[in-house]
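Final report, closing paragraph on structural work. Over the funding period we assembled a curated collection of sequence-structure pairs, and we close with a single example.
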Amino acid sequence: MKQLPLPIRLDQRATFAAFVAGENGMLVEALKEMLNPASKPEPQVYLWSGGPNGKSHLLQSLCQAASEAGTRAIYLPLGEMAESDFGILENLERYAIVCLDDVHRVCGLPEWAEALFHLINRLRQSGSRLAMSANGPPDALDSALPDLASRLSWGPVYRIQPLRDGDLVDFVVRRSRRQGVVIPRDVVEYLIRFTRRDVTEMIEWVDLLDREALARQRRVTRPFIRELVASSGGRRRQATRQGH
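Its predicted structure, as stored:
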């Protein structure tokens, strides 16, 4: 019998409370319901997005919430494991909740695709809950096993909707407060004019502002933002807003 995979260290900042749902409220609720078997949750949830809109954050949030509740859960970033032994997918039915990130990274590999197919079957039989993420819907993935798409679609499929500007501002303000850096709302609104409007880039900017404000003993203001944008070269992007 193969040994169970070692749990991946989770980002402690990845929590449901830290996620600004925007138009993704139904998805967040579906994941939270997995924490309470008595509520008869969906046994499987699949979420996808073509960009970095919080897939990993949500799966890690589910795992951390499960652990805090005393529920055995595991998070596996398959994109980082594609070069590893596909046998890592064995015995996962011992967990109550299994979170598989970036399944599209292994679907095109024959041995991985078959292992994933059988894992989904075993989890359904054992009563474990499964949450998966990918960069596209199940029927759009390049799979080495034709029947895999039907298994990936056994539960509800959610597309993660990108945050609107107002929701993105809320996210940055909330994130920065948790990290102990004060970024006024009007300064955040100014910042997003120079960045891609996605969660991953905004997290990088909050981390950068946190480091630079501390190193330079500066408050985060519009002039400070301008200095960092000017010195960050390729990170700067002109504000190109759809429909404006």
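The beta strands are 44-48, 73-77, 97-101, 129-134, 157-159. The two ends are 59 Å apart (CA to CA). We thank the funder for supporting this effort.
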